[in-house]
Records
---
Amino acid sequence: MSKAILYDSTLCIGCKACEGACAERWGLPYNDKIAAEEKISAHKLTAIETHGDRFCRRLCMNCVEPACASVCPVGALQKTALGPVTYDAGKCMGCRYCMQACPFQVPTYEWSSRLPRMRKCNMCYERQSAGKPTACAEACPVGATINGDREELIREAHRRLAGKPDQYYGKIYGIGEVGGTSVFYLSAVPFEQIGLRTNVPQEPLPETTWRVLELVPDIVSTGTVLLGGIYWITNRRAEVARNEGPRTHRKEPRH
Amino acid sequence: MRKLPGITVWRAVFAAILAAGLYATYLRVFYGLGGSTNLSDKFPWGLWIAFDVMCGVGLAAGGFTLVAMVHIFSIEKYKPILRPAILTAFLGYSLVVVGLLYDLGRPDRLWHPLVMWNPHSVMFEVAWCVTLYTTVLFLEFLPVVLERFGLHKPLEWIHRISVPMMILGVLLSTLHQSSLGTLFLILPEKLYPLWYSPILPLLFFISAIAVGLAMTIFESWHSSRSFGRALELPLLMSMGRVLAVVLSVYLWIRFLDLSHRHALAILARNRIETWLFLLEIALMVVPTVLLYQARIRSSPGWLYACAVMVVFGFIANRLNVGTTGLEAGSGTHYIPRWSEVAVTLSIVAAGFAIFRLIAQYFPIFEAHSPQPEPVEIEETEADPVGAR
């Protein structure tokens, strides 16, 4: 059963307990100065953003078909059956294609390090593997972030929308976006008003490159026959011209 | 009297560029990408990818284009300019690897894609193609070195595998020249619609052929000046013709692409992207129109000017796709830091210098060939009585 996170912006009080729990889980420093930074970075893998009197939480969407995992040339990023998209820093060579490809601009980089790594939330893969909830969901005092089975959370989100239709913008962010994510958002206002990207495609991004990449064997095999054939034809012509044309003493065939 | 001051000025510029590049290298090594570039989480690729890699690979495309023309299509008249094109390609790819060593966060892991596979990644395919093709280029260039030192045995071995090797080289080039465009297909909402197109791979491939031809004209002109050789004008004239046709096809496909995607209307927007796009297109349209005129093609100066325009049009295109076209979609601005520019200029300068050195000491421009020249045949044919 695949796991997911449901973040309900209408319940969030902006206490940033999730940020502190996340920093503790990754062993990252956390203080007032870092708490004031309203964006994710290599030392802050989740962040509460303020949009007027509303809050929005940013973290890795752990997409169902992640662009980052599809573009990684060394397979350092993997979509696990459990749901989280994990990262193996030991494989990463730092090409940063994952950062470029992510439609949510989630992966961040240790720019000032001499041996840099990419950093992102992995939905507490280790904790969830051991049957525990994510650190952020455990820390949230008001239940704005909850963690559970993906299908169950989608049902829960629909229940909330149906129960209080006047308090919610009637959509769930994360169901259709890039073919589905493992983090869902509920909001009182349209999602772009709380800083979420609403121009992302509604189908999985890996398709866009795979459509071309899957042609590689065809191109190689057809190309070999075509180029080999052209060589055979043009060189036969040259050979004939050489043998029949001049009556010189050159008779060795071309190599 | 004309040359001496020029050389000193160029040497001073060269030394200044290398000095700046060295200091930038120090910053890169000791202060990381953060201390040497203006890259950020929102803008992870900059000049080193867009120029050093994307332009570098494209500007080296003359190698595979000429190998295909001379050895596969057997248009043997282009043979005298084959070697400089192969040398440019080999140098170009080697310098792309140098550029990558600067850009990768962990350059010590450059080899990882060769053992840790992800066939779904375009970058993985590019890594394999570039590695294999650089090897092919090395083998295609090796005969020059072997001839220089009179090593005939290994020369024979290379000749034995040369045909499959050349076909492999052309295939690998087709794949990765286009794949550099495929890299950006995964950014449909990020790359500005004037550049984002499902046929980016095809556009990258055709423009690489065009710039490969342009670079061949470019370096023939330069080498004729610096080595005091006669310019292969009839050759370059017919190459100008080929270039005009390739450019026309490219421009026509780009027009069709924009029109089918209903993207022509966004040209009416007064945005920086519109102007950069028009600049890029103008740098391709002007030489195309010029090259259709016999008067232009037969003038070495104009031919050279056309080649330079195509090269700059190509560079503008790759920089637009790799940087400026991504700014709006990434919600940020990017101007390369001086140290990024210094490294890039150093790599280009080193390329020129190494080319010159090799051309001076190795048989690059002597149209040496172990095979009979068609020109000779024509001459004997013209005088059949004498041949008897």
---
Amino acid sequence: MFAATLRGLLAHRVRLVLTALAIALGTGFMAGTFVFTSSLTHSLDSLFAQAATGTDVIVQHTAPPGANVGAGSGGSKPIPAAILARIRSLPGVAAASGVVTGRAVVLGKNGKPLPTHFGVALSWPLGAPFQAIFTRRSGRPPTGPGQVMIDRNSAREGKFAVGDRIEITVGGQAMPFTVTGITGYGTATSIAGGSTTIFNTGTAQRLFGLAGRYSQIDVAATQAISPQRLRARIARVLPSGVEALSAVNAEASQARQLNHQLRFLTYFFGAFAGVALFVGAFVIWNTFSIMIGQRIRELALLRTLGARRAQVFRSVLGEAAVLGIVAAAAGVLLGIGLARGLAALLATFGVALPITELSVPPAGVAGAFVAGVAITVIAAIPPAWRATRVAPVQALRDAVPDPSGFSARRLAGGLVVTAAGIALLLAGLFAHASLALTAVGAVAAFLGVTVLGPLFARPLAFALGQPLTRLPGRTGALARDNAMRNPKRTSATAAALMVGLALIVAVSVLVSSVRSVISRQITGDAKTSFYVQAASADSGITPAVAAAIAKVPGVRQVTAVLRTDATVAGSAHQNVDGVDPAAITAFTTLDIRAGSLSSLSSGALLVSKATADSRHWRTGELVRIGFGSYGVSRLRIGGLFTNAGPLSPYLISAATFTADTGIHTDNVDLVRAPSSARAALRSALAPFPGAQLLDQAGYARSRGATLGTILNLITALLVLAVLIALLGIVNTLVLSVVERTRELGLLRAIGMRRGQLGQMIAAESVIIAVIGAVLGTAIGVGLGSALAAAFTRSQGLTVVIPAGSLVVYIVVAALAGMLAALAPAHRAARMNMLAAITSE
Amino acid sequence: MISLPIASAARSTESAARTEELVKCYGSGQSQVRALDGVSIEIPRGSFTAVMGPSGSGKSTLLHCMAGLDNADDGQVWIGGDEITSMHDRQLTRLRRDRIGFVFQAFNLLPVLSAAANITLPLDIAGRSADRAWLATVVDAVGLADRLAHRPSELSGGQQQRVAIARALVSKPAVVFADEPTGNLDSRASTEVLDLLRRCVSEFGQTVVMVTHDPVAASYAKRVLFLADGRVVSDLEDPTPESVLDRMRALGRPRSGDHDGE
């Protein structure tokens, strides 16, 4: 019987390819995710390994575990120059160099920042071993103020040559330099694709406010001593809080930490791969269901000839397994190519990650393969089971599909599963804040609606097909009849599209709602009229900006807000803001609910009430805040506020902030001035090309821009699921065309033109697609509203439904439906009319 | 071989359909079969013609080529005054839609449509509305006035074939081609369908060409053409089942001068 299975598969190549593609795409996405993350890990490892070139021991301030690597504008706590002198005097030290690091952005010749995503500034290390990493140098290293060496990548992009004038912004302020040298970095042209600027030590110290201090000290050992022994020797002369690390270990641990932080990408992409596989499962299930339906006579004949039920079951599953293996193998190959695609996709959305080498993790790829095969086989189990229920007598009868699809059992079962799913979802969102519970609820709700699908496929097809019945030549009406004749097939085909679209809609509802909250917080509090912030992500703006703004005629008041990424009570990546307690309420209404604003001045912490509620904190409680290498501060909660406005949920005074973090660049300057001051402000900011002036709406947009990027990225990833669903529509239509060969032949015989035939199939496709889109939109709006309510309830429950986008989604789905009909319509038009009429 | 009177150009306007040295081959080289080997026939208006012949005699191929369902390799076909072998697919489609009616052995109704919608389908496809009086006449003639709302699956075989005949009549075609219309029916339903076809001719002046292998069915026609090996070998006016059977027996005997391939 297995030979028959294989022949059956090979006999229908188009169907085989389409069905296999539905699984291959999902498997490919999953394999691609593993290849991508593994490649990223390897690339980061080699990047950091290169960074250790020539260095044996690194001396730096101790950063507690979980400290934020390279995040925030703080950098690491500086080390006094005296320690460098002490190290240099130790025996076994061949060379030691103090290194200053900071953030600087290279401006192109047009005065705009280069399109690199970040800029690293370094001091030129003293000592040949440390200079080895700067490869393929031309010109010479910087030796005095006004001199800079830049990376090859920036030189190429900005068309800079040695001797050129160049402008570089530090803290947003433009400063003129002369390019004295251009350099590569190890085997690369720059550090991780960003721009690199190298100053001499004195200049770097002045630029980053580190006179007499260094960010870290690099040490090279003599031949006579092992790096380990030298490390121990150095450690003995260091004050507490400063540590000596083996360079190899230090860089490896940095790489580990960064990799750890990027691990979320595996889950992020993995989730979308899961969605793609889930949708692929619908396509498999539906395709096998249709094929079993078409093969009822053949199966019944096999049963008549004595095949056991188990044999029929195995035969169908065998077909699924062969299909799954072929598809998953193709998917794995696809995934290896896809890994670079994912990196490119992230780069498009402003997240550039240095993928320098491709690494294929055997376990991950094998996992994706197994998942692909398993999903295919599992999706084929219900149709295979139905195949075993075919009675031998059906070999002699014509099968008439039940057109109503109605059954009380289906209704009850569907309602119970849907209701349970919704209950789990809401419990996950509102009662337990559990992502797993929410996801399980969502999957159950989708399955429940799918069970119910055949019950409303007919009325939906009838209603949505209504406009199409106006098409001339009855093509639309026939299409509608065809969509209604087999509600199970129509609803299963539409269900795949429904899942993808529901998720897109849910995310867009959530993002619109959160954006609306942000916009309300910023524009609702009309005291601040202008905002000045750094144009590039984390470079900050110098206090000179605020000073310059204060001198602009018409400006009533300006205050600086400092911001850092910190670990608050164990949760990493929380924003903590430093504000001027005396000035801040002139810019935003904090609406203090407990404690007092003035407690800020005595070093206390203000927490937003929503955050405090979710953490069960009260005023007076002590909270541990980790500021990276600056150590951990224990701060008392001095008050709770409800209206964060443009601020973060954690506020401390600017004085406390500077003392605890060492950060001396501002995040945003709040300005009170009449709108007529805009031109004057703009000209006052001319020397600061790295700072941008925004009004309320512009600032709200910029705060919401990240969300928009995330929405676009998620939509792009879900488009794959939608594509798979479209493959499902193509597949169903092709199978239907084959099934209705005689009908189509008759229509041609009695005078239907090829074009009308195509129109009819396209109309049916559009009806199926729009059913999926409408169901998906309805579910998406429900799911999105629940998500939005859960996210925004602490800041004034807000649900915004982006009606315009929803209409666009449905129209796009209808157009995609037409596209999906191309191949089946072509096939129907090409069909031999005589064979169609005479085929039995 | 029996030759028929050669149609003159003047007579062509009186014939509903006509073929001239029609040739259709299947396969190529050694295995080539001439399914039609120079068939020239004329179907007068308002006539009921049966085409008979053993399996493989080319009778279905003749019908397909005359009805614009299949392309001939040589020769001409006229429907009314129009020569159709030179027509493009689009013109042929239009011809089938407006000037030809079909009745098939397997009924070939659309299962999703009611009997009424199946009947008016050719008009719907053409985007024309039905002539109500004619539609009522046709529905009355086929005797299905009380079954119009039913789906094909709810009708008996005879009823389905009567729906198909009504569908063929509704656009007042030049010719109705019926391909083994009783092949799937029991004798009672066959009689009903054949009576109906005869009434189409006698009452409405409809031209009907019916392919059949059943002498009883053929006896309902005014004239029977006998095909063998792709040629018209005999014809019979006012047939009875017995005379048809006799003629077939006579044709079944091997004769000298037959070409290869038997």
